[in-house]
Amino acid sequence: LYNLLQLEIDNWPLLEEVSPTSFQGLNLTSLSITYTNITAVPAAALRNLVYLRYLNLSYNPISTVLKGSFKDLIRLQELHIVGALLRRKTLNFDGQQPMCSSPPEIQGNALRDFPDSVLFEYFTCQKPKIRDRKLQHVTAREGQSVSFLCRADGEPDPSIAWVSPQHRMITTRSTGRATVLPGGTLEIRFAQVQDSGTYICIASNAGGNDTYFATLTVKGRPADGAHHANRTLYLSDFNDTFHNDTQVFLKFTLDLKTILVSTAMGCITFLGVVLFCFLLLFVWSRGRGQHKNNFSVEYSFRKVDGPTTTTGQGGARKFNMKMI
Question: What's the pLDDT at 271?
C-alpha cells in the first residue's frame, strides 16, 4: 500500500501495542491512532514514516513520552496528544511555557498558572461530528460548477478539509478549480471528467476527527455537432496552476434550427440538379430513336484523252445513297 497517504485507527480497545514493522513500506502523511489502549508512543513504528506531517495519539493511556520519540519525523508539522495520562507539571517545554490563545477570558495566561481543578473546566475537547451524513451523489456535465456540503460540530470548532479522488488535500488555502469555502463547502468550478470519483470530508480538531464521503460523476460533452454548435468554451482556469482571474470565452451562434434549414436547402438543391440531369437524358434518348440521318455521295469520273469507245464514257455520274 505504498500509495496510502492517510491512516486512521480509532476506537480499538484491544489494541495495546503497535509492532515496529506495522507501517514499514508506507508513505503516510497523516496518521491517527485514537481511543486505543497503547500506553506508550510507538516510536519504533513511527521511525519509518519519514513523510509524516500529521500525528494524532489522543485518548490513549499514554503516561510518558520518552526523549527522542519523534526525532525521525523530520517533516512532522502537527502533533496531537489529548486525553492521555500525561502529568502536566512534569512536562518540559525548554523554559517556554505555552500560553492560552482561547477562549477570550483566559487568553494570554500561562498553562502552569491553572490548578488541576480548573483544567477540567477549560481544557476539554469534543471530537468533531459531521451533522448531516446523508450521501451526496452529484452528476454534472463537463464545464459546470459543483459543490458539496460538510458541516461539523466540535469543541474547539473543527477545521474542514477535503481529499480528492487523486488523494490531493483541498483546504481553504487551495487555489485552482477546487477549493473549500469558509463554511466547509467544497466547490469545484468548471468540472472535468477526470474530477469524477469519491471525495472525503475530514473534520478535525484537538479531540479527533470525523469523515464523510461524497461522490461526483462528470459526463463529457456529446460528440454530435448539434450540441457543439451552440456552446461557450471557457479557456481559463482549466487546471490547478492557472490563477489569472480573466476569463476568455468564445461563442458559437449557430443553433439547431439554422443547421436543419441549411441542410434541407442543400439537399433540395442537390436533388434538383439530379432531376434536371435525368430529364435531359430522357429527352435526348426519346429524340434519338426518331431521327434519320441522310447523306449523299457524288462521284465524278475523270475525263480521259483519246478515242471514245463507249458512249457517254468520260461523263460525270452521280450516286445518291440514303442511310437510316
Answer: 78
Residue 257 lies in a domain: no
Q: Do residues 150 and 33 share a domain?
A: no
Please, what is the average pLDDT of the chain?
A: 77
**Global pTM?**
0.42
For residue 138 the three cell numbers come to 452529484
Sequence-ordered alpha helix ranges (H) in the chain: 43-46, 116-122, 225-229, 256-288
pLDDT in tens, 108-144: 888 777 776 676 666 667 888 998 888 899 999 999 9
User: Residue 113's closest CA among 133, 88, 94?
Assistant: 88
Q: Given 3-state DSSP classes, what are the helix, strand and coil percentages for the chain, each rounded to the nearest 5?
A: 20, 25, 55
| CA-CA-CA-CA torsion sign (62, 66, 72, 77) | positive
29 found inside a domain? yes
Q: What pLDDT, on a 0 to 100 scale, did the predictor assign at position 250?
A: 37
Full domain range(s) for residue 170: 127-219
